Amino acid sequence: MAGETESGEEKTEDPTSRRLEKAREQGDFPRSQDFGGSMVVLAACIAMYMVGGTFAADMKQIVVSGLTFNSAELSQGFDMPARLGAAIVSGFWAMRWLVLLTIAAALGAALLNGGISFSSSAAGLKFDRLNPLNGLKRMFGSAGWVSVGRNTVKFFLVGAVLSAVLLAQREQMLAIARLPLESMIAAGASLALYVFLAISLVIAVLGMADIPLQRWSFTRRMRMTRQEIRDEMKDSDGRPEVKQRIRRRQREISRSRMMQRVKDADVVIVNPMEFAVAIVYDEQRSSVPIILAKGRGEVAAAIKQLAAESAIPLVEAPPLARALYYSGEVNKPIHEGLYRAVAAVLAYVYQASAMAADMARPRPAVPDVPDELLFDEEGRQMSGGR
Q1: Same domain, 208 and 279
Q2: What is the mean pLDDT of residues 291-298?
């Protein structure tokens, strides 16, 4: 079954990113407990296998040093707390590789097993967990039976591996009993380490197999009904920060597309410090010039830079640049009142491009902008002033 709500509607839809994010904020995300513990045990076994001899020798030296007293110390006295503190520090130093490797294994396992998350709500007291009825539901529910089955498989596999290892080492175990005490302890420790290493490998494999199972179970538990998805969409669309983020992203996409069209322009008309408008005249596309891009401030600077990189002429005409900026829209024809002024600029550009490189360029004519299309820097109409 896909799961049902109290209203009887089935949870058939995959969880949304917002639902998964809210669950993670509450400390609820897919994580295999077996994997983390098995990695720590396996790391400890590997560390003991690699540096176990050095660790045993260091611990032996600490014990011998702590129980050895000379006549001078007995007659003059010594600082027992200082001696104990030095022994504790030496013990921690002897365990440094074991501690560091297990910490690294714990952190690495956490990163591979859903990541590291700190949630205050997860650490808070939840009274529903104290309800015995909820505990019985967890024990006898589908999740409880899956856990029982997993633990049963784990028990039999570990038991089988342990039996196989002990059976393979039975002759060595019998031989240990005939060794001297010190050799017996060393051989017994080596055998025990070998057994723990084999068991930890089995548990690690089971832990890795448990990761996809936990993720599947979590995704199934997080499923939503169609009504829940519709309610979430309504709630998200009404949030001001979401609307602001959507509008910002739309502006970024629109600006990116606009900037890509600058290289197709015939001319960029600029007010040197503030405005820039890219114009194209293509008879097959439109009978009048079209605004490909426009902007002011940083956007205008970017348009001018792209025009310079693409060898597109820049013509300084402040009144015309402001008129085009405030009266036109991107990817739309220019205002009909600016046909004559833009035609004069295009004629100058075509004439200059047809001249040889060593010829002197003509001075551009000042375009005539109608009074009703004269604007100041803030877009306010001017009365004939330039």
Answers
A1: no
A2: 88
In angstroms, the CA 319 to CA 375 distance is 7
The answer as to whether 80 is a domain residue is: yes
The pLDDT tens digits for 240-254 are 665 677 677 767 776
In the beta sheet, which residues pair with residue 267?
279
Handedness of CA 309, 314, 316, 318 (dihedral sign): negative
* Mean pLDDT in residue range 162-170: 83
Cα separation values, 369 from 26, 136, 195, 210, Å: 63, 83, 92, 75
Q: Is residue 383 part of a domain?
A: no
Residues 56 and 204 in one domain: yes
Main-chain dihedrals φ then ψ at residue 346, nearest 5 degrees: -65, -40
Work out whether strand 267-271 and strand 314-316 pair parallel, antiparallel, or are unpaired.
Answer: parallel
Could you tell me if 300 and 275 are in contact, meaning their C-beta atoms sit under 8 angstroms apart? yes
Q: What is the DSSP letter of 177?
A: T
Query: Against a cut of 0.70, is the pTM above it?
Result: no
**pLDDT: which is higher, 66 or 290:** 290
Chain length of the chain: 386
Residue 282 buriedness (CB in 10 A; 0-12 / 13-18 / 19+):
exposed
Q: Quick one: which H or E segment has residue 109?
A: helix 96-112
pLDDT confidence of residue 277: 93
Q: Taking 60 as the threshold, does the pLDDT of residue 386 lie above it?
A: no
Q: Express the helix, strand and coil content of the chain in percent, nearest 5 each.
A: 65, 5, 25
Per-residue H/E/C for 229-262:
HHHHHHHHHCCHHHHHHHHHHHHHHHHHHHHHCH
In a shared domain, residues 225 and 268: no
Contact 366, 317 (CB under 8 A): yes
CB 37 within 8 A of CB 43: no
